[in-house]
Amino acid sequence: MSVSGLCEICEAATIEDQCDRCGRLVCEDHYDRETGLCTDCAAEARRPTDDEQKDDRDYPDGVDEYEF
Ligand SMILES: [Zn+2]
Ligand SMILES: [Zn+2]
What we know:
By secondary structure, this protein is of the alpha+beta class. The chain has one domain. About 30% of the residues lie in helices and about 10% in strands. The chain has helices at about 40-45, 50-60, 65, and strands spanning about 15-20, 25, 30, 35-40. Strand 3 and strand 4 form a beta hairpin. The radius of gyration is 19 Å and the shape is rod-shaped. The model has no long low-confidence stretch (mean pLDDT about 85). One zinc ion binds near residues 21, 40 and 41.
């Protein structure tokens, strides 16, 4: 893929790759190679929602013992 132009996030650096999620063309600084996403999407994908955090805290301490 040959792309030319500026990053759609900072509009200052040349495009490095395309986000797999939102399809934005982003520069090296705004492209997360691990996930193949732009930094915006990567941050969302990694950050657990408040609900998920609540679920974790709701688990009783004895769950591990019970499964054993
Ligand atoms: Zn950028
Ligand atoms: Zn994205």
